[in-house]
Amino acid sequence: MSQYLHQAFQDLRIRKNDVTNDQNKLRSQGNSAHLQALEEKIDSLYLMNLAALELLQDMGVSRSDILRKIEEIDLRDGKLDGKVASSSHCKDCGHKVSPRRRHCFYCGANIAQLQF
Fold it and tell me: Less packed terminus of the chain by CB within 10 Å, N or C?
């Protein structure tokens, strides 16, 4: 009887580990897909920034002018931290919305974003 209980508990632990392993694999696949999407966004943003900088330089805007504007934009939220304001407000319901979101978490309204 003791041998049977020991084997049953062992089988239960093995099944639990298998389920945990499967969950970790799915989580890893999701993280990989998310990472790939982020890498694509970074590449796209890098390309847009490079084009904008070259256009500004072609128009005679100096590097120091660009750096001053970057600092001005950074300070709009009151902190010189290399980040933009942490949130905006939904035009439909008024709740705070992360600038990274495309839709309001509360009402589902589209959040205006720059499109290129």
Answer: N
Cα–Cα distance, 96 to 104 (Å, whole number) = 8
Q: Name which of 115, 83, 80 is nearest 98 in CA terms.
A: 83
Q: Is the dihedral of CA 27, 30, 34, 36 positive or negative?
A: positive
Domain span at residue 111 reads 86-116
What is the Cα–Cα distance from 39 to 29, expressed in whole angstroms?
A: 15
Residues 72 and 97 in one domain: no
Structure-token match 């890893």, residue found: 28
pTM: 0.55
Residues 79 and 107 in one domain: no
Confidence of residue 85 (pLDDT cuts 50, 70, 90): low
Count Cβ neighbours within 10 Å for each residue of 44-83 and write b for 16 or more, e otherwise. eeeeeeeeeeeeeeeeeeeeeeeeeeeeeebeeeeeeeee
End-to-end CA distance of the chain: 70
Residues 21 and 57 in one domain: yes
